[in-house]
């Protein structure tokens, strides 16, 4: 199977790499990490003006129709530079609205997302053992709308998000609901994450909401599947960027009059990193390919869970090894490679760690459905 990028995706990769490299300097990253929102708004605006945010949207909504594949290309480049912009929550949410939202929802949300003037985020996780496909947040019908009650944990990038897509369970099953960030019954408790990003715990107390699609249909599963792939794409970039730091460091540093890169033990560490990164890359693009027509939801979920497991296990192993081969400077929080370690650690546990991923995959293989 050929997972090489076509000309269109190579153009997205090259343009994103240029913009992200220009913006995500160590000095700029430190500046953003000290800001209240922890989002590089200048970088977000430049990505929008370059057409990279709109590129993933369908052509009918003013985009280039690159979809999830285009988003994964963009996210890998973000991960390489650990650039603090909320691409994965905003654009996975946008793809969900584009695919399942009403004409009114699409026209109200997608133009602002495409030009960078508006954002949304996604609320998929909760406290306790429930997984993203079995939310305990409850959705009750209220006339032509819905009311949501529950608590969502670690909602990514709440700053600047005017709306949030919330997974909740109605009588017919889990669904996705659109909630205004400042709606009555909505409250936020901000919390810093391992990667120095700002998240928030979202409490919903009868908050008014609109359904995106029909509760009990495939929308919740699609959103979670896309979130798994988006996180796997970011993690693949984080690991690749960390390996680049390690290679540069080991070429330049010497021990006993020899470059560290010539020592066999160090070479074996980096070889293991390379193997993990290649596994992450192959499983990611296999999962993206599984989204194509003719679509098989069971095969797509299996592939996405395998990619998610490699992102959690292989990604964390890679950033740990890279930090180790840097020696004492690897734990210096101001040294660039430390950010890759923190990002890798954070992503490896988002939407469940490697063990949770294996549990979900086992349930899917034995019973045909994932319920947690």
Number of strands: 9
Could you describe the largest sheet, including whether it forms a barrel? 7 strands, mixed
The CATH homologous superfamily of the largest domain is called Butyryl-CoA Dehydrogenase, subunit A, domain 3
Distance between the termini: 31 Å
Unreliable stretches (pLDDT < 50, length at least 5) are: none
Order of helix and strand elements from N to C terminus = HHHHHHEEEEEEEHEEHHHH
Shape: globular
Average pLDDT: 92
Q: How is this structure best described in words?
A:
It is a single chain. By secondary structure, this protein is an alpha+beta fold. It folds into three domains: 7-118, Butyryl-Coa Dehydrogenase, subunit A, domain 1 (Orthogonal Bundle); 121-212, Butyryl-CoA Dehydrogenase, subunit A, domain 2 (Beta Barrel), CATH 2.40.110.10; 219-367, Butyryl-CoA Dehydrogenase, subunit A, domain 3 (Up-down Bundle). It contains eleven helices and nine strands. The chain has helices at 7-23, 26-33, 41-49, 67-81, 87-100, 103-115, 219-252, 264-289, 297-325, 336-349, 354-367; strands at residues 119-123, 138-142, 145-156, 161-170, 173-180, 186-192, 198-212, 254-255, 258-259. The strands form two sheets. Strands 1, 2, 3, 4, 5, 6 and 7 form a seven-stranded mixed sheet that branches. Strands 8-9 form a two-stranded antiparallel ribbon. Helix 1 (7-23) packs antiparallel against helix 3 (41-49), helix 7 (219-252) packs parallel to helix 9 (297-325) and helix 8 runs antiparallel to helix 9. It is globular, with a radius of gyration of 20 Å. The two termini are 31 Å apart. The model has no long low-confidence stretch (mean pLDDT 92).
């Amino acid at each position: 199977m050929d997972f090489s990028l076509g000309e269109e995706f190579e153009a997205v990769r090259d343009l994103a790499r240029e913009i992200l490299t220009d913006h995500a300097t160590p000095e700029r990253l430190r500046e953003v990490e000290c800001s209240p929102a922890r989002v590089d708004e200048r970088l977000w605006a430049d990505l929008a003006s370059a057409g990279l945010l709109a590129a993933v949207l369908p052509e009918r909504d003013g985009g280039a129709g690159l979809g999830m594949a285009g988003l994964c290309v963009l996210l890998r480049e973000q991960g390489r530079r650990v650039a603090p912009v909320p691409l994965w929550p905003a654009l996975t949410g946008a793809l969900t609205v584009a695919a399942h939202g009403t004409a009114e929802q699409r026209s109200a949300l997608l133009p602002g997302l495409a030009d960078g003037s508006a954002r949304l985020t996604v609320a998929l996780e909760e406290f306790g053992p429930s997984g993203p496909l079995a939310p305990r947040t409850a959705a009750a019908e209220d006339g032509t709308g819905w009311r949501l009650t529950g608590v969502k944990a670690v909602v990514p990038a709440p700053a600047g998000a005017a709306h949030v897509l919330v997974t909740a369970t109605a009588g017919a099953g889990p669904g996705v609901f659109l909630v205004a960030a400042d709606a009555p019954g909505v409250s936020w408790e901000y919390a810093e994450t391992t990667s120095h990003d700002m998240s928030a715990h979202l409490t919903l107390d009868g908050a008014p909401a609109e359904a995106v699609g029909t509760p009990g249909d495939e929308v919740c599963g699609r959103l979670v599947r896309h979130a798994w792939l988006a996180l796997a794409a970011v993690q693949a970039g984080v690991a690749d960027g960390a390996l680049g730091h390690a290679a540069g460091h080991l070429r330049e540093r010497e021990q006993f009059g020899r470059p560290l890169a010539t020592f066999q033990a160090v070479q074996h560490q980096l070889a293991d990193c390379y193997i993990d990164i290649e596994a992450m890359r192959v499983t990611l693009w296999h999962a993206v390919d599984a989204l194509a027509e003719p679509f098989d939801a069971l095969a797509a979920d299996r592939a996405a869970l395998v990619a998610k497991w490699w992102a959690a296990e292989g990604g964390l192993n890679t950033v740990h090894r890279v930090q180790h081969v840097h020696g004492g400077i690897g734990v210096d929080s101001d040294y660039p490679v430390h950010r890759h370690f923190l990002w890798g650690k954070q992503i490896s546990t988002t939407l469940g760690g490697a063990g949770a991923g294996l549990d979900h995959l086992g349930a899917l293989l034995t019973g045909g459905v994932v319920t947690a």
